[in-house]
Amino acid sequence: MSRLPRILAAMAFLLCASASAQAQITGFFGEQGPFLDGADLVQADMAAQSLLRPHPAALGTSAAWAEPTSGDSGLLTLQRAYQSHGRDCRTVRWHDDSKSGTERTLLLDTCLVSGRWRLM
User: Fold this and answer.
1) Most buried residue among 1, 18, 67, 72 by CB atoms closer than 10 A?
2) pTM here?
3) Domain count of the chain?
């Protein structure tokens, strides 16, 4: 089973929760702070699972997520396939929108290592 969905959710959480990462996000994207909560990340995790389990989907394939309680939503898209150090790798575009109108887009690189997708 792929671990990328959980890694993507953890990455998003860490980017939102970490003070130094938050300063980088705020400075780059002009945001005022994190807006995804745990329920949002559960929905994003399910979207990621649909793209990479049991095998990665075709490039350009997207999976949308929405959390009805928070009103937040997002889209994950497989952007690129490549080899790195003999491993299959993918670039995943992570885009999320908050009900308040805040948006964020990240490009995440992940490679298949010992049968599991891992962020690089």
Assistant:
1) 72
2) 0.67
3) 1
Asked whether the bond before 54 is cis by omega within 30 degrees of 0, the reply is yes
Q: What is the pLDDT of residues 28-83, one digit of tens each?
A: 334 444 578 889 888 988 888 788 876 778 999 999 999 999 899 999 999 998 99
Q: How far is CA 69 from the centre of its chain?
A: 20
Q: Which pair of structure tokens corresponds to residue 48?
A: 């990621």
Is residue 89 within 8 A of residue 82, CB to CB? The reply is: yes
What is the distance between the alpha carbons of residues 107 and 112, in angstroms, rounded to a whole number? 17
Q: Name residue, tokens 């671990």.
A: 3
Domain of 15 in residue numbering reads as: 4-119
Any long-range contacts for 25-33 (C-beta under 8 Å, 24+ apart)? 25/104, 29/104, 31/102, 31/104, 32/102
CA–CA separation, 16 and 35 (whole Å): 8
Query: What phi and psi values does residue 80 have, to the nearest 5 degrees?
Result: -150, 145
pLDDT digits (tens, 9 = 90+) for 67-80: 999 899 999 999 99
